[in-house]
Amino acid sequence: MLTYILSFLPLSDQKEASLVSWAWYRAAQNALREDASVLSMIPALGLSLRVLDLSSCVALTNRTLQAICTYLTHLSVLRLAWCRELCDWGLLGLEEPLQGTQPRPELEHQASGTKDPCPEPQGPSLLMLRALQELDLTACSKLTDASLAKVLQFPQLRQLSLSLLPELTDKGLLAVAGGCPSLEHLALSHCTRVSDKGWAQAASSWPRLQHLNLSSCSQLTEQTLDAIGQACRQLRVLDVAMCPGINMAAIRRFQAQLPQVSCVQSRFVGGADLTLTL
Question: Less crowded by CB within 10 Å, the N or C end of the chain?
């Protein structure tokens, strides 16, 4: 049980916890060993593996991700949900920053200016997995536009989850729209920095979209519903639960615009479950 609890801590906290006592040391070592065991198996799996699900392997490191990108280039499905140690430099194939040093200037966010602050992918980046059809990065909360805007370029990708990424903005959304035009399932729940402006430009890139989850995207309003209704004509399922800027009147208009939509999830703060199924 202690090993399980410690596995949810960042690596730096796991190392500190290992100093408490001998029992805590052994538990922390077991938690750290989870990543080491995955890393040791990757080269042996070679080109034969097509589906890899490492969801909730919270101790998984960027080094292991880069090994996946090096050896498992034929993957069609990669699930890394809740692997919260993954960082931008890991996805981009960059070397790990030295402990105690300042963040790389190219990964720092710039609020203004025309210069692109994002570095190009180097080494074993996520871009090497060209055959991907499904990618799940749910709750990999350290990821930002700095990497996502560069590596999410998968023409064959059908399913993508970027839910619970607090740093995803309209820039990242537009990059995904340009790099992943074949998406059929897209989950962006709790991406609170994505706005109507981003969707106004991105929606037209996804004519094949069938399932869309935008729950708890607090900046979205009926303008996003209008953009989706005009561009995503194959949509079947939409989740806008807990989106305070979208009311029932807007949902009714959306359903009139796209009568083929069979299910709209639309629960509201303090209200009843208003799931509408046709």
Answer: N
